[in-house]
Q: What sequence folds into this?
């Protein structure tokens, strides 16, 4: 069974690396990709080298998994193996639950609190069974655990404010039109960046790796100020020389920052993926060397001597995943959009009371500061933050100045954490630095600030949820393994394997669903010709109308049959459809800005059609949700008369939508008059049905909830058909 556990831990380590790199490691690529500093393969190669160097120097962080949150001397060999297995298995369950719910998570937080939960479970088991007289505090390294947790939380705050402050100062100095002033002072500014990266990454992050001679490290530590001054001077001179040869030193700084952040990530986060399996392997080797199962695993408290070949293998898996993971590239695209300079950056976050209050408070504070600041100063500061026009900015998400600040601040913070042996959350550090710099760059305008704040608070709340969830699940899983023995070990392992397979299968299905947005397709088509844009847009509207038809028909039929499962699925599809149409409104604005003069006359029709589709989807959602709620609450079903009337309405809706879809497919609007007549006839039918229902109310009454649902379906159906006709009317102008 011991060998089975070791093999299981090894397999989980490989899978952890693949999943971790796909979700977390992309953070150090965002700035390079967002600013398009170099070709994709060049960026990945630089990051890959940084990862390989980082994994060779991360052995100090491995101690966190071995003795960071518990005292291994208090556990026997069998217990420590159960502890490590319970933590890894619970981590898979945790990630599967959070992915299913769409909640943010962190591998660092799940590691720390998973180990804490597993150690707590075994400690409680020993206390409850009477095998020890020790107290709970003697098992848990509470002081170190508190320091780790505090470090993670503090890093989130420091990352945001350090990113904001550095970006604000940098933008004041250089503005968005930085070419002229950067040619004079850019070497000095980039010199600070490179010197900081070298100091914290090389002399702090790599000081225990053996790569830096001890004499040099000792001198730097004793003469920090002089060392930093020498580094700054040397870096600035070298960059100034490169600048004289027309080398873009900002690109050099960003690639250097990408390398250092990849190194810092590998050095800090590798423990999240292989720290526990490696500790399990060491425990197994200790038991094999002793010839028996030790009653105390105090040997795990000794500093780790990482196996060179194991670390190399882990690094290679990380690099290969970096180059081959499609999921990683999609995550990069998502984070680039979130921190984009565009104020209309699309977001799925719904505004909350807290985010609205923060925005109002920030505006009030800003007004108070401006009231006491001389207008000349305000005017000068505003001029430094005057953004470039879209045509000058190009298709980058942000410029090279912000990319450099992002990398510098994040690399330094993570390197400090690695030096202090604190497993910081790389995801949160990079994310919060990015949010801080985008705020300083005034990307958080009044149009998007409330949504961005909601996103930030969601990340912070996700940290707490991950911590609590990771602790509880690890506690429960480890107790199950202890009390269930071999049967529980095999059973929970098979369960987790099933979850992994299910996650990979569903992940592939999700990949198949991911398509380029409709507005992006139209933008590409417009570059070819207005006719091509018309074809593309008509296809999009046709697909939307067919989706409306399908959801409406299945919802009405499911209400008749009181099919809760189908109604739940229709609500989910209607919600996804509504959110996608709402997203198109934000995506449409940049497209309209880039319209050629010949396309401006038809631009407002794009706006109309998008708006009408959005209103149609909203009416559809107002039908599906009440229908599902009615059946889910087990209310009385619709009467026979109501079912008969709704069938008549549904038939007319299908007939109208069928005619509309046919016109869209053929791009011929000769039947527009026929659709208008059909619409009027259906409206007359709805009025007739409403009158029939009012008479039934007077004569027999019936279920109040069923009656309200019936009237709601009629009203929203009328709204839906009305907007559908408006879509056709607006779309007709593209043809004529």
A:
């Amino acid at each position: 069974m011991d060998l089975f556990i070791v093999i299981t831990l090894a397999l989980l380590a490989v899978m952890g690396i693949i999943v971790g790199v796909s979700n977390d490691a992309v953070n150090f690529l965002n700035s390079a990709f967002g600013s398009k500093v170099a070709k994709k393969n060049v960026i990945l190669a630089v990051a890959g080298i940084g990862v390989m160097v980082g994994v060779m120097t991360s052995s100090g962080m491995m101690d966190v998994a071995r003795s960071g949150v518990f005292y291994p001397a208090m556990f026997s060999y069998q217990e420590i193996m159960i502890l490590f297995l319970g933590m890894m298995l619970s981590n898979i369950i945790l990630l599967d639950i959070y992915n299913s719910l769409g909640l943010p998570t962190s591998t660092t937080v799940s590691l720390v609190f998973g180990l804490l939960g597993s150690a707590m479970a075994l400690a409680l088991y020993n206390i409850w069974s009477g095998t020890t007289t020790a107290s709970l505090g003697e098992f848990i390294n509470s002081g170190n655990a508190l320091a780790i947790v505090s470090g993670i939380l503090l890093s989130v705050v420091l990352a945001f404010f350090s990113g904001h402050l550095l970006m604000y100062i940098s933008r004041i100095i250089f503005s968005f039109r930085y070419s002229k002033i950067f040619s004079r002072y850019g070497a000095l500014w980039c010199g600070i960046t490179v010197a900081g990266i070298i100091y914290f990454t090389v002399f702090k992050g790599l000081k225990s790796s053996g790569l830096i001679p001890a004499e040099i490290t000792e001198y730097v530590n004793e003469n920090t100020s002089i060392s930093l001054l020498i580094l700054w001077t040397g870096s600035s001179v070298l960059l100034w020389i490169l600048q004289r040869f027309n080398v873009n030193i900002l690109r050099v700084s960003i690639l250097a920052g990408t390398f250092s952040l990849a190194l810092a990530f590998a050095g800090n986060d590798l423990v999240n993926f292989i720290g526990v399996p490696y500790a399990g392997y060491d425990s197994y080797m200790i038991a094999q060397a002793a010839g028996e199962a030790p009653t105390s695993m105090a040997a795990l408290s000794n500093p780790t001597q990482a196996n060179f070949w194991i670390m190399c293998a882990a690094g290679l898996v990380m690099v290969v995943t970096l180059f081959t993971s499609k999921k990683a590239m999609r995550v990069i695209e998502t984070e680039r959009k979130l921190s984009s300079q565009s104020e209309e950056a699309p977001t799925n976050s719904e505004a909350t009371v807290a985010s609205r209050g923060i925005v109002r408070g920030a505006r009030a504070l800003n007004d108070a500061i401006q009231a006491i600041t001389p207008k000349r100063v305000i005017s000068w500061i505003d001029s430094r933050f005057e953004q470039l026009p879209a045509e000058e900015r190009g298709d980058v998400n942000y410029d090279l100045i912000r990319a450099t600040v992002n990398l510098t601040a994040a690399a330094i913070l993570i390197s400090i954490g690695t030096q202090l042996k604190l497993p910081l959350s790389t995801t949160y550090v990079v994310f919060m630095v990015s949010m801080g710099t985008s705020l300083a760059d005034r990307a958080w305008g009044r149009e998007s600030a409330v949504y961005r704040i909601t996103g930030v608070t969601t990340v912070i709340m996700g940290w707490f949820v991950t911590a609590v969830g990771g602790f509880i699940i690890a506690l429960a899983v480890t107790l199950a393994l202890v009390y269930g023995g071999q049967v529980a070990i095999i059973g929970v392992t098979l369960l987790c394997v099933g979850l992994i397979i299910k996650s990979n299968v569903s992940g592939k299905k999700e990949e198949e669903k991911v398509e380029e947005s409709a507005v992006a397709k139209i933008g590409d088509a417009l570059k070819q010709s207005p006719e091509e844009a018309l074809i593309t847009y008509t296809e999009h509207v046709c697909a939307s109308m067919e989706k409306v038809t399908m959801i409406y028909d299945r919802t009405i039929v499911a209400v008749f049959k009181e099919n809760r499962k189908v109604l739940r699925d229709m609500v989910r599809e209607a919600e996804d459809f509504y959110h996608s149409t709402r997203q198109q409104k934000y995506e449409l604005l940049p497209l309209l800005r880039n319209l050629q003069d010949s396309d401006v006359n038809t631009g407002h029709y794009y706006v109309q059609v998008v708006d009408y589709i959005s209103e149609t989807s909203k009416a559809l959602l107002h039908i599906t949700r009440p229908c599902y709620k009615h059946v889910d609450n087990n209310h009385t079903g619709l009467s026979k008369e109501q079912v008969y009337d709704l069938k008549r309405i549904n038939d007319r809706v299908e007939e109208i939508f069928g005619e509309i879809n046919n016109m869209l497919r053929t791009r011929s609007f000769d039947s527009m008059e026929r659709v208008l007549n059909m619409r009027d006839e259906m409206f007359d039918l709805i009025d007739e049905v409403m009158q029939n229902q009012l008479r039934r109310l007077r004569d027999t009454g019936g279920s109040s909830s069923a009656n309200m649902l019936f009237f709601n379906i009629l009203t929203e159906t009328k709204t839906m058909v009305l907007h559908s006709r408006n879509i056709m009317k607006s779309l007709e102008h593209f043809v004529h």
The longest helix spans residues 449-513. The two ends are 76 Å apart (CA to CA). Residues 510-516 have pLDDT under 50 and may be disordered.
